[in-house]
């Protein structure tokens, strides 16, 4: 278990559009939530949705079968791995998360600051 189900930031029944709408409404840099990923893929079970600089980023959370850990985004060498999704959130409440905009080829970073609840 990824340690998500009892957490305030986990939006269990939320799809991508609902998540993005909720974050645009919050309109605060560092607003975030975690939702189930759209594709039913066990290797990418969740998505971290973050609002920063008037944009919403959907960051895939990967499950690494071999080590039973979680990591953010595409696989890269030297990536940070975590034992639960909750650890990813706790880590990025303290340290900045790099947000990559692949369309504009820009990088930003923010900490996870404001939990957004989807109503």
UniProtKB/TrEMBL annotation:
Give one Pfam family: SH2
Biological process terms from the Gene Ontology for this record are: cell surface receptor protein tyrosine kinase signaling pathway; intracellular signal transduction
Annotated GO CC locations: cytoplasm
Which UniProt keywords are present, listed alphabetically? SH2 domain
- What sequence ranges are listed for the domain SH2? 9-116
UniProt entry tagged with the keyword Transmembrane: no
Which PROSITE patterns does this one have? SH2
Q: What is this protein called?
A: BLNK protein
